[in-house]
Design goal:
133 residues; five-stranded antiparallel sheet; 28% helix; binds guanosine-5'-monophosphate
C-alpha cells in the first residue's frame, strides 16, 4: 500500500529527515504542535500497531527515545508526548504507523482535549478481569 509516508521514505515527496535506517525514517512533522515535533515512521507501511511486527515496533520506540533525548539537548524542552494514533477511530490520519515525539515545555499551556468517564461500582474490576493479559 502506498501512503504519503511511503513516498516520503522513498524521497518522492520532500521532507526534513533527521534519521533513517533500514527499518524506519524520522522526519519533522509539517504541522508541528511545537517546532521540532518529529515522526518516527516504519519503512514498511504497516497501517497500525496490531499489524506491525514486534521487532520493528521495538526498534521504533528505541529511536523515539533517541529523538526525545536530542530534543531535550537541542531545544531545551522539559518533556515530551510520545504517542501513536492507532487506527482512524483514534484520529489517525495517515494509515501508516508512526510515533509522534512532541517536545513539551513546562507551563506551555497545552492540554489534550480528552474528557474522562467514571466507573460505576464494581465496573473497574470487571474491566480489569476482561482486559487481563
Ligand atoms: P496522525 O494523525 O496520522 O497520527 O498524524 C499524521 C501526522 O503527519 C500529522 O501530524 C501531519 O501533520 C503529518 N503529516 C501529514 N502529511 C505530511 C507530510 O506530507 N509531510 C510531513 N512532514 N508531515 C506530514
Amino acid at each position: 500500500m502506498e501512503t504519503v509516508f511511503t513516498k516520503i521514505c522513498a524521497g518522492e515527496i520532500p521532507s526534513t529527515k533527521i534519521y533513517e535506517d533500514d527499518m524506519c525514517v524520522v522526519i519533522l512533522d509539517i504541522n508541528p504542535i511545537h517546532k521540532g515535533h518529529s515522526l518516527v515512521i516504519s519503512r514498511n507501511p504497516y497501517p497500525s500497531m496490531g499489524k506491525c511486527p514486534e521487532d520493528v515496533l521495538s526498534h521504533m520506540i528505541c529511536i523515539a527515545k533517541k529523538v526525545e533525548a536530542k530534543q531535550r539537548e537541542v531545544l531545551g524542552c522539559d518533556g515530551s508526548n510520545i504517542l501513536i494514533n492507532n487506527d482512524p477511530a483514534s484520529g489517525q490520519e495517515v494509515p501508516h504507523i508512526h510515533i509522534h515525539v512532541i517536545p513539551r515545555y513546562q507551563n506551555d499551556g497545552l492540554k489534550f482535549g480528552f474528557t474522562h468517564e467514571k466507573y460505576t461500582d464494581g465496573q473497574m474490576a470487571d474491566f480489569g478481569a476482561k482486559l487481563h493479559l
